Amino acid sequence: MTGTPYAKLANPIPVTVVMMPVVGATDDGVAVIRIEPTHHNHASGVECIACAAASDIRAILFDLLESVRQGQRPMFTRVVVDASALPDPQDVIDRLTPGRLPALGLRDHAVARNFTLAEVV
C-alpha cells in the first residue's frame, strides 16, 4: 500500500466494537485493538494527555493504517476494537459514529474516510 497518510482507500474498513473480551486467535486480515481504561482518576470531564493518547480510537486507527502504508504490517480487511475493559465505551463509539463528534484535524478526516463503524456487540 502506498500513498499519503490522508489518501482514501477504495472501500472503508469495517470496525466492530465489542464489549466482551476478545480471546484467542482471530481470522487473518483482522486487526484487534484493545482499549485500556485510564490508569489514574480524573475529575469529571477532565482528561490528561497520556490517557487521551492511549484511548483515542481515531489516533490508534490512523497509526494502524500508517503502519500498513509504511510496510510495517500486512493490510487488514476489518478491525475489532475490544472495549471490554472500559467502564463506558460510549466515547469510543461516539468517535467512530459519523457526525457525533467533530473531526479535529486531517488525521480524524482520514479515519472517517477509511473506516466505518459496522457494529457494536
Description:
This protein is 30% helix and 18% strand. It has helices spanning 49-55, 57-69, 90-96, 106-114, and strands at 13-18, 30-34, 78-82, 115-120. The radius of gyration is 14 Å and the shape is globular. The model has no long low-confidence stretch (mean pLDDT 83).
Which parts are unreliable, with pLDDT below 50 for 5 consecutive residues or more?
none
Strand content: 15-25%
Rough shape? globular
The Cα radius of gyration reads 14 Å
Summarize the amount of helix as a percent range: 25-40%
Major sheet attributes: 4 strands, parallel
Number of strands: 4
By secondary-structure content and strand pairing, the structural class works out as alpha/beta
How are the strands of the biggest sheet laid out side by side? 2-3-1-4
Name the average pLDDT: 83
Number of alpha- plus pi-helical segments: 4
- The ordered string of helix (H) and strand (E) elements is EEHHEHHE
What is the domain total for the residues?
1
Distance between the termini: 30 Å
Q: What are the SSEs and their pairings?
A:
Blueprint: E1 13-18, E2 30-34, H1 49-55, H2 57-69, E3 78-82, H3 90-96, H4 106-114, E4 115-120
Parallel strand pairs: 1-3, 1-4, 2-3
